[in-house]
Specification:
By secondary structure, the chain is of the alpha+beta class. The strands form 2 sheets. Strands 1-2-3-7-6-5-4 form a 7-stranded mixed β-sheet, with helices on both faces. A 5-stranded antiparallel β-sheet has the order 11-10-9-8-12. The model has no long low-confidence stretch (mean pLDDT 93).
Length: 235
């Protein structure tokens, strides 16, 4: 597990893409300052020196659908131990504290494997999120009133992500399901062409979300749709 710290970079995911030949399975890069952090669905990820941006390279032995779930459960578990408050996952891979977003994950495929990009809000205060119009965001500081050792956290997360990626998939799905706030909720499903309400009933063996609509039960996958809670961000 080679680690690379960068004082600043455009995006840690992009850095791995540019230097892919030098990255082996489990190697990671991290920074506290990204100038062009990327979020899911083409959005930008706010990185104002108060967060942690970590990208881990993994080779291609894994199932693309379950990589985001394995990563989210690993980060959730490390953060929960540290923060000592219950944390949940909004399918497929947002980590929530008190129903607000604490961490986002962007998994991208490369020709040899995956890049798992993890953005964690560490020391932002409420005003930082108000300024950038992110009412559903929170940070470790806001939830615990504590400053944490980001280096130590980075090491623990990188290790746990690799561990989870090697876990038996059925066990991983069970663990994920246990901690997923989306299940049992009425949700709004948003795809490029349509938006509709449904009831989230479970996670299938490939990591897809099983939903009950007015007319049928089906599975949606994370590359194709995003979901919102009806009453708040996660539920
Ligand atoms: C999301 O919730 O939209 C996903 C956010 C992912 C942000 C992380 S920060 C580290 C890595 N580098 C990036 O440019 N994006 C991911």
């Amino acid at each position: 597990m080679k680690k690379t710290y960068l004082e600043t970079v455009d995006s840690t995911n992009e850095y791995i893409k540019r230097n892919a030949d030098t990255f082996c399975d489990g190697d990671y890069v991290y920074t506290f300052s990204q100038s062009a952090g990327k979020g899911r669905r083409g959005r930008q990820w706010e990185s104002n020196k108060k967060g942690l941006a970590l990208s881990i390279f993994v080779n291609d032995k894994r199932n693309a659908q379950t990589v985001p779930l394995a990563s989210a459960e690993a980060v959730r578990c490390v953060l929960e131990k540290h923060m000592k408050i219950p944390l949940k996952i909004k399918w497929p891979n947002d980590i929530l504290a008190n129903n607000k977003k604490l961490c986002g994950i962007l998994c991208e495929g490369t020709k040899d494997g995956y890049i798992i990009g993890i953005g964690i809000n560490i020391s932002q205060e409420k005003a930082d999120f108000v300024e950038v119009n992110l009412p559903y965001a929170t940070s470790i500081l806001m939830e615990t009133e504590k400053i944490i050792d980001r280096e130590k956290l980075t090491r623990k997360i990188a290790k746990e992500v690799v561990k989870n990626l090697n876990m038996k998939e059925s066990k991983l799905i069970d663990k994920f399901t246990e901690n997923c706030i989306t299940i049992g909720q009425k949700i709004k499903v948003i795809s490029v062409n349509e938006e509709y309400e449904a009831f989230a009933v479970g996670i299938d063996k490939n990591g897809g979300l099983k939903i009950q609509t007015e007319t049928d039960i089906k599975t949606v996958i994370s590359g194709e749709v995003s979901v919102r809670g009806i009453y708040g961000y996660g539920e």
